[in-house]
Write a structure and sequence with these properties.
Radius of gyration: 31 Å
Number of helices: 9
Structural class: alpha+beta
Helix content: 55-70%
Distance between the termini: 26 Å
Order of helices and strands: HHHHHHEHEEHEEHEE
Strand content: 5-15%
Shape: elongated
């Protein structure tokens, strides 16, 4: 849900809470009690209370909930809630019983109510309301966002499935033809036959396996290796690429055809025949993340960000899959172009 729409709901909730507070004074003390809230110095204390109340409200909504509930860290949420109780009481005491007292010479709480035990207990009630309101709204937004995301994924899946069914006949014919060539050449020209088999596997991966949202990392790495292999076959001794993979490559799941975007851009728009400045493609895998970097000189006339599926589309897909739990950078210094990707696995 976009920020501007969230703020509409924040504004609505703030209005309701403030109006309900004024209505409460009217119910308890009548019109005189309500009007008293707008007279000085009482208005200062009403204003300070709302300032502290909604500070805790936004602190919980924009900091506590994303750091805890988004990652299912419920024990951290409980700890932050206790911190919010202390913060609410402390802020209110500083503003009302110190700052405003020096201005008005009037305490908001009576002397016996200003004792730490009662003061903290009384303000815990108000802080809890701010936390509950903001947490409830945060969970509603999360529910709506996830529902919209699932709906969009269903639409995309149905479109992909329809396109897949439409294309079945042509790939099936192509794979049968390649298989026939492989059988015919395997005895007389085994190296050519192996290349045909590798090409068939590469095309099969793009046509069939990549229809899934996530695929095993080892399949993606093999696809990249085959992709680079055919460039070596095409350019022979005129291709200079350093491709390195570090870490354990197994069945870790990553988004399909994410990595090929960066490799494809290197070959389409980069200078790949410079022995002194070879293309560098590095992939590092650890227990929780995959990191990929590329670096290459590029043709000055080329505009990287306007090619392929594009930087914008990659960012949108990664955001849909991982929200903010990824890093993506493109650096262009007019001679070299480099990229950095970090995603959870």
């Amino acid at each position: 849900m976009e920020t501007k729409y969230k703020w509409k709901y924040h504004t609505l909730l703030i209005s309701i809470v403030v109006l309900m507070n004024f209505f409460g004074h009217y119910v308890v003390g009548g019109i005189d009690s309500l009007l008293k809230e707008f007279t000085l110095p009482r208005f200062y204390y009403t204003l300070s209370f709302n300032l502290v109340f909604f500070s805790i409200y936004f602190f919980n909504f924009y900091i506590v909930c994303p750091l805890t509930l988004k990652k299912s860290k419920f024990y951290k949420f409980a700890l932050f809630t206790i911190l919010s109780f202390v913060l609410f009481a402390s802020l209110r005491y500083i503003i009302e019983e110190i700052i405003l007292f020096n201005i008005t010479e009037i305490h908001n709480y009576e002397e016996k109510a200003r004792k730490i035990g009662y003061y903290f207990f009384d303000n815990t009630y108000f802080a809890l309301k701010a936390i509950l309101y903001s947490t409830l709204l945060y969970l509603i937004f999360r529910f709506v966002e996830n529902k919209n995301k699932l709906h969009q994924l269903e639409i995309d899946h149905k479109k992909a499935k329809l396109n897949y069914l439409k294309s079945q006949m042509s790939p099936h014919f192509l794979f049968n033809t390649l298989n026939a060539f492989y059988v015919e050449l395997i005895d007389d020209k085994p190296e050519t036959a192996r290349d045909i088999h590798k090409l068939s596997e590469l095309l099969r991966f793009v046509t069939y396996e990549s229809q899934e949202d996530f695929l095993p990392l080892k399949s993606e790495i093999k696809f990249l290796e085959d992709y680079i292999y055919f460039y070596y076959k095409r350019f022979e001794n005129e291709l200079f690429v350093d491709f390195n993979v570090k870490g354990l490559v197994s069945n870790q799941q990553i988004p399909s055809l994410i990595l090929i975007h960066f490799v494809e851009n290197v070959f389409k728009h980069g200078i790949i025949n410079d022995k002194i400045n070879p293309v560098k493609i590095n992939i590092t895998i650890n227990d929780h993340f995959l990191e990929m970097t590329t670096e290459n000189k590029f043709i000055i006339s080329e505009k990287y960000t306007s090619k392929g599926i594009g930087q914008k589309n990659i960012s949108q897909r990664l955001t849909a899959l991982f929200k903010t739990d990824y890093q993506l950078r493109y650096v262009d210094d007019n001679t070299y172009f480099s990229t950095y990707l970090k995603i959870p696995i």
